[in-house]
């Protein structure tokens, strides 16, 4: 969202405020915009997020609004789900409006931009492939579970590979998720035809077929990858990390340990900021990693030269970081878009092997050991 006059452009960045995986990509995009002369960027963050973390100082300013859960965030309403979504829309719309009135020349979400005289842009944080699947759902070509059938999925076009039920975003295929999740993701396409711009957190060379389709249907523009400049082109000298950390990273401790390891000898394990694996699953993973003989660390250290492999939940931010760092992956998706990302990482981009759960839904230690057993060169044949 932006407004301008002859002197400057002011851009208001409004991410889905649930967790840092949505906030940081838009923040990183804002840093790129703010590097241009005459552009001022402001990130709208909830009071809970700002109180929970001290945003790293950057060229992007931070302004506070309320989602109605200032003390405990989404957990006040039982976590991410329908009650929180309703509260966010109700309280968030009101307090964002107050924020808009308090700052001049700022934009607004698409459905009210024209009322404020500001240009509006939608920012899609997931891959082009995942966006296309939600487009199919939005257009009625993908019925909700349990009506969705495998033959319907196999017949989808505009994708670089054929998908099975296990490759679909869980909100489109898994009956265990409340319908509000599907509704939230599908409704992101409401109003896109009237948005001034539609921006996608991906890049053309990674998904050319999918990017062409989105460009032809929604006028999408690729603006990714939105990760710190230090991992890409170093065009922003001070941009060495993300600005929002809801979980305090042990940077100094992990770096000291990694510095003592051999090059490409460590398997880095991370399941994102929202994963909640049960004790049995964690035990299986730990046993499998131990039996593989690989040293493992569960911290934010992907770009370190001692890291030779990355066991990941396949969140899009983590995936792009691994691609940028040239680190192969062991894919263990959990929910949402991660299953589709895992399919592309393994079968389209061919930079990962995927671990699979058994009939009880648990990835066993033997499966983890097998996939983690080899060196960087052997990981695809072990």
From TrEMBL:
One Gene Ontology molecular-function label: UDP-glycosyltransferase activity
Pfam family, one: UDPGT
Record carries keyword Transferase: yes
Superkingdom: Eukaryota
Keywords assigned by UniProt, alphabetized: Transferase
Family label: Belongs to the UDP-glycosyltransferase family.
PANTHER family hit by this protein: GLUCOSYL/GLUCURONOSYL TRANSFERASES (PTHR11926), GLYCOSYLTRANSFERASE (PTHR11926:SF1403)
UniProt name for this protein: UDP-glycosyltransferases domain-containing protein
Natural source organism: Setaria italica
Origin organism lineage: Eukaryota, Viridiplantae, Streptophyta, Embryophyta, Tracheophyta
């Amino acid at each position: 969202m932006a407004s301008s006059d002859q002197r400057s452009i002011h851009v208001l960045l409004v991410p889905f405020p649930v967790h840092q995986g949505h906030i940081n990509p838009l923040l990183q995009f804002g840093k790129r915009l703010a590097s241009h002369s005459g552009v001022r960027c402001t990130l709208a963050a909830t009071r809970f997020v700002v109180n929970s973390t001290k945003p790293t100082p950057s060229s992007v300013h931070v302004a506070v609004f309320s989602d109605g859960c200032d003390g405990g965030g989404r957990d006040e309403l039982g976590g991410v789900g329908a009650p929180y979504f309703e509260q966010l829309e109700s309280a968030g719309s009101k307090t964002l409006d107050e924020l808009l009135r308090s700052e001049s020349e700022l934009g607004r979400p698409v459905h009210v931009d024209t009322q404020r005289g500001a240009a509006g842009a939608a920012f899609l944080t997931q891959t082009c492939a995942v966006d296309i699947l939600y487009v199919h759902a939005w257009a009625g070509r993908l019925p909700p579970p349990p009506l969705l059938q495998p033959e319907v999925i196999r017949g989808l076009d505009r994708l670089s590979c054929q998908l099975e039920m296990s490759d679909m975003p869980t909100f489109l295929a898994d009956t265990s998720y409340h319908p509000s999740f599907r509704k939230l993701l599908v409704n992101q396409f409401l109003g896109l035809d009237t948005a001034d711009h539609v921006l996608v957190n991906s890049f053309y060379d990674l998904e050319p077929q999918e990017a062409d389709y989105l460009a032809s249907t929604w006028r999408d523009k690729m603006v990714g990858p939105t990760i710190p400049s230090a991992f890409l082109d170093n065009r922003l000298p001070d941009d060495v990390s993300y600005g929002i950390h809801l979980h305090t990273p042990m940077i100094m401790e992990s770096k000291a340990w990694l510095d003592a390891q051999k090059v490409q000898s460590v398997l880095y394990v991370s399941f994102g900021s929202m994963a909640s694996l049960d004790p049995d699953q964690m035990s299986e993973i730990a046993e499998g990693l131990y039996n593989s003989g690989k040293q493992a660390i569960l911290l934010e250290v992907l770009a370190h030269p001692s890291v030779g492999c990355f066991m990941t939940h396949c969140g899009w931010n983590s995936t792009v970081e691994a691609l940028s760092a040239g680190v192969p992956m062991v894919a263990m998706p959990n929910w949402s878009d991660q299953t589709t990302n895992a399919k592309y990482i393994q079968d389209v981009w061919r930079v990962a092997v995927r671990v699979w759960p058994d009939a009880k839904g648990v990835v066993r230690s033997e499966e983890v050991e097998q996939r983690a057993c080899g060196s960087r060169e052997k990981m695809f044949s072990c």
